[in-house]
Amino acid sequence: MTASDSPLATATDEPTPWALPPRAVLAEVGSSDAGLTADQARARLAEVGPNRLAPPARTPWWRRVLSQFDDVLIYILLVSAVLKAIVGDWIDFTVILAVAVINAAIGLIQEGRAEKALDGIRSMLSVHAQVRRDGAWTQIDADDLVPGDVVRVRSGDRVPADLRLLEGVNLRVDESALTGESVPASKSSDPVPAGAGVGDRSSMLFSGTLVSAGTGTGVVVETGETTEIGRIQTLISEVDSLETPLSRTLDAFGKKLAVLILVMAVVMVVIGRVVHGFDTPELISAAIGFAVAAVPEGLPALVTITLALGVQQMARRRAITRRLPAVETLGSVTTICSDKTGTLTKNEMTARTVRTAAHQYAVTGIGYAPDGEVDLAGSPASLAEHPDLRLLAEVMTLCNDARIVRSTGEGGSGTDGPGAPDDGAGDAPGWRLVGEPTEGALRTLGLKAGFDPTGWRRIALVPFESENKYMATLTQDPDGGLHVLVKGAPDRVLDRCATQTGADGEPEPLDRDLWYEQIDAIGAQGLRVLAAARTGAAPGRTTLAPEDVDEGLELVGLVGIVDPPRPEAVEAIAQCQDAGITVKMITGDHSGTALAIAREMGIVPAAGAEDGAPAPQVLTGAELEAMSTEELRAVVEDVDVYARTSPEHKIRIVSALQSRGQVVAMTGDGVNDAPALTQADVGVAMGIKGTEATKEAAEVVLADDNFATIERAVEEGRRIYDNLRKSVLFLLPTNGAQSLVILVAVLLGWALPLQPVQVLWINMVTAVTLSLALANERAEPDIMSRAPRDAKASILTAAYLRRVLLVSVLIGGATMAVYFIERDQGMSVPEAQTTAVTMLALGQLAYLFNCRFLDRSSVTFSVLRGNRAVWYSAGALVALQAVFVYAPFMHSWFGSAPIGLREWGITLGLSVVVFLLVEAAKAFGRRRTASAPPR
How far apart are CA 588 and CA 646, in angstroms? Predict the structure, then answer.
């Protein structure tokens, strides 16, 4: 049954059961309080199908395998392998082919995260359901539910389908996986407006969410793929994966390089044939040697290994990478869209301020740990000296069902204060909440204030109801006196009060205007406001009813509660902004709360911080709904706070940012975030509180759910990209010098200074030793003070390409020079060629030190420190080259010959000259950049 087929569809073809009275919904779905009969249920099941999320059609395995080879770099690898086979080098042919196969295998393993995300969502659905069939309650498989079934749920149940609530008692549901709200939503059977967002549909229970308190009965209105969670599955399956900036850059680079090699090979063959009259077989051999020298067959492996090393480094920094390219993509991020709860904030509700009639108290410390105090004018306030504070702490601690448990870290727990029981749980040292977050904040407030509940005993209770919005207890103090304690929504509590608590703890006339003013002031700070009230009770009383607290209460005070920002996240946001990265908050919370937290975290300027500046703009889900795609694109870069958002809204925000050229990282933890994580350039899931569906949809998983870890991951991504650039900048002149030697020799009609097999040797030895040394380089000092790189820019700028050409000429020229000098000195061809190969090896080793610092000078002792891999690589290169020169079996394999100290001295001296000339070019580039006018 699709949305348009639903009996609840309106004129707009959108079903809105939340806007209809319960009786009307029952009538529309053809049901009643007694539910369906077994025959009706069977007929409807045959019509709408089972209540499950169907797996999508999977791509055939052979097509998935072939798609892994659809890459220009892989084409270069395969062409290189063919060329190796043509020249008869079957060892290199096997190695290069193996690299291509390994790359494909890695791609297959990493592929399919969206499919796994759908599997994760399917696993969230309830297995069984309590349903009313033929007038009697029975338990059935959730798969067999159909629209019209009457279902009941209670605390701890997972909602089995989308239900329209018929009746509920103290019903609260954890919808954080759908809405992102940290506090369970109160549910009521009263209709809500048809335009209400998912988070505001208080008359609905959604499939896959968890009942945290109370009981309820509802009628099934949607099942399977038409449920809210089913719609999210559809969104995930419809999102197209994006190319990473690195893949786009390397793809373009590979195509240009392939064309250049082909053109130069043709030019070489034509000139060799027409001008110098070389034989065709000789020309073909030279062309193959040129192509073998020019193709950087080590580049794909170099990229893969560098990214793999980056994955290991990021894991040490608590960011687990599920896809290799995401490591580099993080380094080019320009915008981070972050969830609020638990990522930017602690996800531990905390009392921030206390207001009584006489005083304004500040509460220090964050989270559930009782580390902090209640201050008055900057000094700790004792309960003995402040009776008004003592009475408020009494109410908030005793009219409370939560407990703050101290974990010993050894499998047992301590207590939350004198007289509190041990629940025997907990494995990690620290403090944790047993109960609801709001009550946990109040319990911690009592601990910080120094209130001791020992000796107090609860006699009776009026539980919190969504209709009343307060909780009341009849409590006996240690002396036997009875008290009625009330806490709840400030408007509901204030309506029941006749007096207020004065500074001396005694009642005084109620100043309603004062309290309305304070409620507004605390709420304007983005804090959740709760009120505390009390009254006496007659001795011997044992019961408490709602009518007992309808009037005559004494208002003790107000408490402002917030999910506080993580201190390290505030610092991380500032560092991101220094790095040119915009941070945007996308949350399911209300706009006032979201804006207050955003101001506190520095995402938007504090109120009044910029004279004459307009107030920071907040877009709500309802406002997004009314905007066209073009309207959203016009404002998306200017808005930094989005509130009351749905999964579709998050996808629209990410897509709009991408349309403006932004590289977007999106964080999330709930299943509602999975589509946006898939759409983003980098999806970042929370490892602790994230759902499995979200983790499978993400490229990166944070092991500590901390925004600061994202900032560190971005820094690591930038370091990895720098090292990739250094490696490419080093690798290309290696191929350039070799190919230049062959190209110039053919164009000028000279004998080849290098044999193809010797080109293979120098390629192999540098690939084994030098190429990977730069992958371990530390971050450049200015790495997080630069603006994000242009995702469309080439991995090598024009300046770097000029450097590649210069170094190719320098090393290639030195190689040809030593060859012809040695020949003029009467040395044999093998000896001259061996000297030329040694020049290539030592010249590249010298250039390796140039590449350690992209633009900074390498003429410093710092170039000799900080990366042991460089010295290991240098030692290995010299050792292997010595084997090439002096081992007899190498002479027969590669046509080499022993050389003396004079030849080593010449090649070493020319290598130093290459190093110094490259440094001179870098210095010229720095001066040119410094004198260039700013753009």
Answer: 7
Beta strands in 626-720 (DSSP E): 641-643, 664-668, 682-686, 700-702
Check whether 511 has a pLDDT greater than 90.
Answer: yes
Short-list 49, 87, 179, CA closest to 649: 179
Proportion of the chain above pLDDT 90, given as a percent:
38
Please provide the DSSP assignment of 357-394 as one string.
SS-EEEE---SSS----EEETTEEPPTTT-HHHHHHHH
SS (H, E, C) 215-267: EEEEEEEECHHHCHHHHHHHHHHHCCCCCCHHHHHHHHHHHHHHHHHHHHHHH
Say whether 705 is catalytic.
Answer: no
pTM assigned to the model: 0.67
Look at 701 and 903; give whichever has higher pLDDT. 903
> pLDDT tier at 231 (50, 70, 90 boundaries)?
confident
Say how far apart CA 848 and CA 301 lie, in whole Å. 18
Average pLDDT over residues 22-37: 92
Burial 216-251 (b: 16+ CB within 10 A, else e): bbbbbbbbbbbbbbbbbbebbbebeebebbbbebbe
- Enumerate the β-bridge partners of residue 586: 642
805 vs 801: CA distance, rounded Å: 6
> Hey, CA dihedral for 541, 546, 551, 553, is it positive or negative?
positive
Angle between helices 707-747 and 299-316 (to 10 degrees): 160
- Sequence-ordered strand ranges (E) for 127-249: 128-133, 136-141, 150-154, 162-174, 185-186, 204-205, 210-222
Which strand (E) or helix (H) includes residue 485? strand 482-488
Cβ(448)–Cβ(373) under 8 Å? yes
SS3 category, 20: coil
Question: C-alpha distances in angstroms, 188 versus 148, 160, 385, 405?
Answer: 19, 18, 43, 32
Q: What is the C-alpha separation between 413 and 420, in angstroms, rounded?
A: 11
Given the structure tokens 């190498």, which residue do they identify? 890
Q: How far apart are CA 338 and CA 405, in angstroms?
A: 30
How far does CA 523 lie from the centroid of its chain? 31
User: Of 249, 34, 224, 31, which Cα lies nearest the Cα of 125?
Assistant: 224
pLDDT number for residue 444: 95
> Which residues on neighbouring strands pair with residue 661, listed in sequence order?
none
Q: Which amino acid is at 618?
A: V
144, 157, 200, 339: the catalytic one is 339
pLDDT band of 289, cuts 50, 70, 90: low
CA atoms within 13 A on the CB side of 779: 17
Q: Report residue 7's pLDDT band, with 50, 70 and 90 as the boundaries.
A: very low
- Please say if the pLDDT value at position 416 is more than 80: no
